[in-house]
Amino acid sequence: MMAQGGHALKPLTEIDATEGGRAPRSGKIAFDLERHLDFSTAALESYAFAEWEPLLYDAMVVAATIEFADRSVSRPRLGWGRKFALRIPVHEPRRWAHAETMRALIAATTHLTGDEWSFEFVRSQSAAPVPGGGLLALDVTTRAVMPFSDGLDSRAVACIVARERGTPFLRVRVGAKAGGRPKRSARVPFAAVPYGVKAAGETSARSRGFKFLMIAGIAAHLSGADDVLVSESGQGVFGPALVTAAHAYPDFRSHPLFAVKMESLLALLFGRRIRIVFPRLWSTKGETIRLFAELEPGDGWRQTRSCWMDSRHCSVQGVLMQCGVCAACMLRRMSIHAAGLTDDNDAYVCAALDASTLDNASVPGFKHLTVAFREYAIAGTKHLDHMASLERPFAANMIRRHSMGIASALNMSEESAHAGLRDLLARHAAEWRRFVASLGERSFVRNWARGQHG
Q: Can you give the three-state secondary structure of 66-115, one letter per residue?
């Protein structure tokens, strides 16, 4: 179907979240809350140290329905955006359907994913699950919560914030535990994500940012915390939004422009402001790791994982490893070098970045060096190289425009935001140049950065 002017209209995908095995309306896709949503009562118990209310379960169902839509419907081959209409059962439909709340929800989801969203809320016919096992006691009053995974950023920034703030904060798990990590026997608040969504078809998964901040916001609400701390350093915040591939929409998952919209939504849902704060916004990841190593000497940073790839694509003889060449791995390895530390190369499938080809860089026994893997690796190098090029004059207007949005989101002057972003990009470029030079003239990474993809 074509609109006037020759532009293709986005087809509308309508999804009904259904309860109790009920069928969706005619022509709608079912998100069955029993079949497609794994809600863990045991994991929910880690949230049980304050008064529980159905609103919190509803917030998770809303986030899960958005995730199901995002992950189930493939993006068009040409273009990016899709169009969704979601019908979701909640226990307080009037609260969710309030005009301000609806505007805030649509603003957050649209800005995050680059899609068009509309929502209809109906009254739930099922009781919301209630955490069991008794209430958890907090030893101290917390002022902040931090979403964390097993990543290097989470561990480093948790250490830095603890030293700098001098006030207690709680960690909120927002991802699956890495393989091989010991399980804690003690009951710890927010130790697990209470739900998982069964969906397949689209891998961009931009809605993860909504899920993570909604879970963190619920944790802040339950604990009385004022702040949600985002552990990303400057490259992880600004890089995905500034450097895009082909027709892809900018990635705002860890960006202040998305965060400020989530602040508005959380305030409307929970009746008070919960700030989303970026403690390392104007630092490179290398600077963050260097400070972490100074504050906490030892090899704790080696035990973390940064890679995006899972065991299906990044295992050798049944052992999960990091690929070593995706954008996340390349940023990790560059930043460890910038921090003056020696990397643990045997943690990576593609260990030898000084090799002349990707094939020669891979460890023996790795059987997944596919065309897709190679393209993923090239994209990882290109992402960091392109970001380094943004300090040059050709990008001046784009950086100025981006700075204006940052200034608005962070309530700072445009000049301060512009100076901060330019300085951050210059430091990133210097770290990238030193890292690539350290790999030697024959390195495939160096050749890729020059545009040679053989």
A: HHHHHHHCCCCCCCCCCEEEEEEEECCHHHHHCHHHHHHHHHHHHHHHCC
Domain made up of 144-277: CATH architecture = 3-Layer(aba) Sandwich (3.40)
Q: Are 360 and 439 in contact (CB under 8 A)?
A: no
Sheet with 144-148: list strands edge to edge: 169-173, 144-148, 227-229, 275-277
- The DSSP bridge partners found for residue 123 are 90
pLDDT, tens digit (0-9, with 9 covering 90-100), for 62-100 = 999 999 999 999 999 888 999 999 999 999 999 999 999
pTM: 0.93
β-bridge partners, 146: 171
d(CA 100, CA 311): 43
Which amino acid belongs to residue 418? Answer: H
Q: What is the DSSP string of 272-324?
A: S--EEE-TTTTS-HHHHHHHHHHHS-SSGGGG-------TTTSEETTEE-B-S
Tokens of 303: 């035990």
